[in-house]
Amino acid sequence: MKSRFVFARALAPAAIVLATIVAAPVSAEPNMEKYGKSCAICHDMGVAGAPKAHDAAAWAPRLEKGTDALLASVKNGLNAMPPTGLCADCTDDEYKELITYMSSPK
Ligand code: HEC
Question: Counting C-beta atoms within 10 Å of the first and last residue's C-beta, which end of the chain has fewer, N or C?
Answer without folding.
Answer: N
